[in-house]
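#struct-help
A.M.: can someone run this one for me? Single chain, 350 residues.
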Amino acid sequence: MASGKSQLSNIVRVSGLNNVEKRSGNGRQSTATFDEDFILELSDSIRESLDRGEIGPRWEEAMGFLAAALRDEANKEPLMDLATIERGRLDRLVADITDPDKRPMDEPERYARDVRLAERLEWRWRSRFREHYFSIQSSRYLKLPKTGRLRGVERDFGINNPGEEWRIKDITTLQAIDRDAAFKPGHWWLNLACAQRDGIVDNPRETPTVGHLGGDTLPLLTGEEFEDPVLKDTTTYIRNGGLADMHVSLITKVGTVMRVLRGHNLNSPFAPRYGVRYDGLYKLAQYGQRFYEKMKTDRMFLILERVKTQPPIEDFEMVPRPSQIDDWGLYSQYAEEQVKKRLGDKGFLN
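D.P.: on it. C-alpha cells below:
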C-alpha cells in the first residue's frame, strides 16, 4: 500500500499542482511544494458551491485532495505546511464543509462521510500547528496592509465619499505592470485607490480617468444602471448630483471604447457584492445631461455597449470569490480600527 506521502504526491500531480523543490524554514530540502493558485481556485470553487446550497462539479476532486492530505498527516513529516493552508484558504474550506448551516439542499449519500473526513483533517491540523493554526486569520490581517490587497494604500480622512476614502501612499507605490496582461475582466480590488496603485486609473475618485499605463477608464461606483430590455449587452447608467458630478469631459468621448469598473454601491444587476471589479470594455454610445429645476439637481445619462469580442460578464459575475470576500471582511475590520485610532471609539460611533 502506498504511503500517505506518496499518495498526496500523486494527488499533487493528478490535480495539476507543481512538485518542485523548495527549502523549508529549518534549512532542510523538501521535494514537494504546491501550486497554491490551483489550491485556492479549488477551495473557492467548493466554497461557492456550498454558498449556493450544492456540492458543485469539483467536489470529488477536492475531497480526493483532502483525503490525501489526511493520509499524509500520518507521516512523520507531513508535506502540507501552514503557509500553504493559509494561502490556499484550506482552513476556511474545511470550516465551510463542516458548517451545518452550509449543508447542501440535495445532500448526496457520501456527504456525511466527507464531513467526517474534513473534521478529522481539521483536528489533525489543529493538533500539529496548535496556536499557529488558530491565528491564521490574525496573520492574514497583519499582512493585509503590508503585502496583501491593501499594500501601498492608506486612509484619507479628508474624504467621506463612499469608495473614495483611501489613497496611495506615494507615487513610487504605482505598480510597473503590463496593462494588457494585468487587467482581465473580473480583476478585483478592495477600493479605487488599490486600482490606482495597480495603474488602471490615475486617481482614487469616481471620475473618468486615464491610467498611468494609458487607456480610458470609467469607474461606476454609485448611481443606477439598467439593462436595455431589447438590446443585448447594452445598459443605461444614470447619475444625479451637481454639475461637477456630470463627467462633462465624456462629451468628447462618445464612440470611444473604455474600461468599465463597477463598485458595490452601484445600484446595478452587474455590481459586485463588495469592492471594485473590472468588467471589461464598453463603448460609450451616448452621453446626455439635464438639469431638473424642480429637484435642483443635474442628471447624467450614459448608454454603454459591451464589446462583444470578450468573455460574457456571466463568466466572472461571481467575483469577488470567497477568498476575496474573506479579505473584504479583514479590510472592513482594518478600516474600523483606523477610524478608532484617529477619532476614538466615540468618534467612530458618531
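A.M.: thanks! Residues 4-134 form one domain.
D.P.: also worth noting: The radius of gyration is 23 Å.
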